[in-house]
Amino acid sequence: MMHPYIHAQKTPTKPAYIMAATGETVTYKELDERSNQTAHLFRAAGLKPGDAIAIFMENDARYFEICWGAQRAGLYFTCISSRLTAGEIAYVAADCGARMFFVSQSLETVARELIDGNHLPKVERLFSVGGAIAGYESYEDARAKLPVTPIADQTAGTDMLYSSGTTGRPKGVKHPLTGGAIDEPTGLTTLGALLYAMDENSIYLSPAPLYHAAPLRWCMTVQRLGGTVIVMEHFDAEGALQLIEKYKATHSQWVPTMFIRMLKLPEEVRLKYDVSSLKVAIHAAAPCPIPVKEQMIEWWGPVIYEYYAGSEGNGFCALNSEEWLQHKGSVGRALNAIIHICDEEGNELPVGEAGVIYFESEAQFEYHNDPKKTAESRHPKGWTTLGDIGRVDEEGYLYLTDRKAFMIISGGVNIYPQEAENLLVLHPKVADVAVIGVPNEDFGEEVKAVVQPVDWKDAGPALEAELLEFCRSQLSAIKCPRSIDFEEQLPRHATGKLYKRLIRDRYWGNKDSKIV
Question: What is the Cα gyration radius of the chain?
Fold first, then answer.
């Protein structure tokens, strides 16, 4: 039995979570009572198990109250990126069928636009969180009037999260509700306890946005287990190190861009903080350049754990630092599925050959309102794929090559841009980089890099020549960019994923492309 209500009974005054910037602490008793009140709010509004709500908030002290309230009421809760526009939010809210919508006061401008443009016609109740917004009810006022005891018909709800739209319209990943008790173990509670030694003593630093799958699910897993979550409102490289030292964090979860930003801090800044309390630093969500991970293990010790998985939950690969040092570049072996590497026709490929990664498992999911995408994710034998390309070695370790959608075909040759990206981002004058295919009359596509320099004054022909030479010195010519453009800021999702489609579309005539 694992749930915050249990810890509210055993350790009522223990912090369930602490907001890093403000220091606001919410105890397990407070989380339990407020989530009960929120569940009553849903029932009073007529929401029943299987119904949906949407949360459009920045990292906020009320976030978990709403999520746990929905979990106790058997609802689907969809967390929406705080960076989206009104039109993009409207699409997700309509697609998930949200009957209630929660928005933080800090996002008032977009919240007002949603009302003024009648973007949420099917949402029955609109709530502002953390302050008044015209046209919205106060969540705190509505919650405060309701009982702190559980609703009579508690049943387990779950999240329905949307892809970040890196390759097209975001799609909701929908898992069937179990109809079970709210405290039944989840796959992540088992993995967290067995693989990462998470328990009631864990102090978990979460530096990423809660609307993304990994931060939300790991935070809620720590709360199921009775640990304490430290929530960063916004990631800051030095700030994260300060928090590890201040709270003696034992566990944390990162994306490679965070590692890169911490490693690029001046050495005297980077090394002045005590990070020895860390037992487990998990990373996922994007490929990590080998030299970056080598430096992180050298700095933090063998506490770096990597996994590869998706919101779909169809497979989970993992490995620790020692394994990775023996299989550099790998994302691990499958723990709860069988990996199959297949060609475009679905035929299995020999060990060592790259192809589409399929997982054979009992996991069930569908892309909400998108039977075509659901069908495309299925192999004739019932296996499922996230659309990634990779290979396995003789020992079953998986190596990611790239996203299938980002493959460049130049003169009939398949080129995966991840290698060039991983190399170029290591250059001291490069803050961020995207490698894409752009039109070429003779070859169909050619390789181009779009670079965000550390110092914008460096942008120009001299830096282009320096970076091209840097790339050619370590990669075969066909994998290297033929040219480099510079941008002051690349469109990167706060979870670390690059909106590569937005960059690519500009070169293919779709200059109005937006994040959707």
Answer: 23
According to DSSP, residue 496 is labeled S
Residue carrying structure tokens 């996002």 = 107
**Cα 36 from Cα 27, distance rounded (Å):** 14
Cβ(140)–Cβ(13) under 8 Å? no
Question: Within this chain, do residues 299 and 316 fall inside the same structural domain, yes or no?
Answer: no
The backbone torsions φ and ψ at residue 259, rounded to the nearest 5 degrees and listed phi first, read -55, -45
Are residues 288 and 319 located together in one domain of the fold? no
pLDDT along the chain (516 residues), means of 10: 94 98 98 98 98 97 98 98 87 96 97 95 97 97 98 98 65 94 94 96 96 94 98 97 98 91 94 98 85 96 95 94 97 96 94 95 91 92 92 96 74 77 93 91 86 96 96 86 95 74 80 38
Question: For residue 43, which of 73, 5, 2 has the smallest C-alpha distance?
Answer: 73
Q: Which of 130, 154, 183 is the last residue of a domain?
A: 183
Q: Structure tokens of 378? A: 């299925």
Q: Which residues lie below 8 Å from residue 97, measured CB to CB, with a gap of 6+? A: 51, 52, 122
Question: For residues 139 and 117, what is the distance between their CA atoms, to the nearest angstrom?
Answer: 22
